Amino acid sequence: GAVVSQHPSWVICKSGTSVKIECRSLDFQATTMFWYRQFPKQSLMLMATSNEGSKATYEQGVEKDKFLINHASLTLSTLTVTSAHPEDSSFYICSARDRGLGGGPRTRGSYNEQFFGPGTRLTVL
Amino acid sequence: DAKTTQPPSMDCAEGRAANLPCNHSTISGNEYVYWYRQIHSQGPQYIIHGLKNNETNEMASLIITEDRKSSTLILPHATLRDTAVYYCIVRVNTGNQFYFGTGTSLTVIP
Questions:
Q1: Element (H, E) at A69
Q2: In this complex, do B98 and A34 lie within 8 Å of one another by their Cβ atoms?
Q3: What rounded mean pLDDT belongs to chain A?
Q4: A64 to each of A51, A89, A94, B9, B30, how far by Cα in Å?
Q5: pLDDT confidence of residue B38
Q6: Which sign does the torsion angle of CA A46, A51, A57, A63 carry?
Q7: pLDDT digit string (tens) for A38-83?
Q8: Chain A to chain B, count of Cβ pairs less than 8 Å apart?
């Protein structure tokens, strides 16, 4: 099956620094990727939708200047947490939608598949 | 997208069937029911999806009621590795985003 990777898997940083998290689709092209945040014992919260070659669309309440998203290629999206603070400590997960060969959406029956990465744990001291 | 309601937690004996319910009483006609699970500190894993017919794959079965207001995910022979949080999500198939609810924390007991 399709594989999505994230790097790093775990990062610890000092308050005030910026941290970049990478999300890669390893064996398929993804024109759309998604970023989620998950606090301990809570569900995943969608932060933003990342579209290749255009600006990301942020969910209500998510600061776009705080969480910078770049989707420069069909296999890579990055999330940069700027001026990180302890309250930004969380588990960040990306997912990617498989566009399939020829650029059209990959479907199984009528399913538009989406694959999740393993997550990145950010700890801000 | 419609919202879903799931019990917060369930236990199941190893080797027995695990039946996880989900209510989605406001589901629209063009919305599918998806099930994902998340094992601790990992990304969500796709399990199964369906529109109105029951579905079965190598991982699980999905039973959707005739009025589509609820569904049940069935793990036929639960193992300890099935311990995870299970999320039921409804979404139009052409939509992009998945909005996760609180899910059901399933614990498989030896």
A1: strand A67-73
A2: yes
A3: 88
A4: 14, 17, 16, 35, 32
A5: 96
A6: positive
A7: 999 899 999 999 988 888 999 999 999 999 999 988 899 999 999 9
A8: 53
